Amino acid sequence: MRPKTIDEIAGQEDVIGPHTALYKMIKNGHVPSMLLYGEPGVGKTSLAHAIAGTVNLPFIPLNATVAGKKDIEEVVAESRMTGKVILFLDEIHRFNKLQQDALLPHVENGSIILIGATTENPFHDVNPAIRSRCGEIKQLKRLSQQDVHKLLKRAIEDEQRGLGKQKIMITEEQTNKIAGGANGDARKALTLLESIVYASDEEDGATIVDDSVIDNLVDRIGVYGDKKGSHFYNLLSALQKSVRGSDVDAALYYMAHLLEVGDLTAVSRRLLVMAYEDIGLANPAVGGHVLQAVQAADRLGLPEARIPLASAVVEMCLSPKSNSAYKALDNAISTIRSGKTGDIPSHLRDAHYAGAKSLGHEGYLYPHDQPLGTFGGWVDQQYLPDHIKHTTFYKPVNAGEEKRMGAIYEKLKTMKKK
Questions:
Q1: In angstroms, what CA-CA distances link 298 with 219, 229, 292, 301, 356?
Q2: What's the pTM?
Q3: Where in the chain is the domain with CATH 1.10.3710.10?
Q4: Are 54 and 18 in contact (CB under 8 A)?
Q5: What is the pLDDT of residue 334?
Q6: How far is Cα 222 from Cα 180, in angstroms, rounded to an integer?
């Protein structure tokens, strides 16, 4: 069911729609070397086949995980005979240096048009030498339910490449259910359709699709991602940004997907970081709550681990938020790294040894000896080195518990100035 030309491609309007520069280039017979990046089933291989079919050039598919130098040499030989070929290289992020050395000169001179496909972020995982020779880097997105529905209808009706020779009794509602269950993955949608058809009963020469068969096969089909790939880290990022944005439903959605992938350790670690990075001083108790939740999750294991983790995620979403503490520390680190350092004031240096006074390590005033209302003890003395003594790193956020702490901070600053 792969599209034969770019006009048959469903979805990906931003990449290959009639209004795009790439579409117009291909229609005019010019194919640039390119990288196609996206999740499985979004159409990377199909797009490469469709491009080759549109311009009618020889098409050679290889997989970088198994291809060797000999395979590349054969592609080079083919290009010398035909003048120009399209090399589709799947899993291009696994391309090794030996393969590159054999191929890249021919990509540069245009005899080989390289179309690379990867599920990993090309700016992280694809060799810069390859990236620099690919004029186009296109990110393909999951197909919409409407696009997947269109593909399924085409497969049901197509007598040559699809299931059109069979009489299949399937409703629009059932087709939509399959399209929705595929979660934007065209390959999964077509595989699921085929499985459903062959798992259905026949009656009077017709295949009758039953809802129970669809429900049984759709289960978990939307789950995608491994524990080391770009998509997994994108899920972690989306979870944190949803919590930071106080969107409970989105945060629970990404949490659900991460737990389905199954890396409980990475999820727990990220939640604990978020408690201090994004909630911070606005609600200091959250750090302890999240620690208790991840410890409980570790002891329980999946699937029960989802219960304490869900509580932690909802609490963080709905908590006041502040990143002021770690930002203040980052400001201090930046100051040190820029060379703005100085001698520790003499009265702050260690004086727990004989001879400290002879070195001038004296004059420290003990704050506990000078009570300040209900605050405890405080004394006005210099703590930073001389040439940065007026520097401030911390900027309190007026949220939650930090509102109270920020007021104390500002009051102490005022008293210092006096």
A1: 26, 23, 10, 5, 50
A2: 0.62
A3: 324-417
A4: no
A5: 93
A6: 9
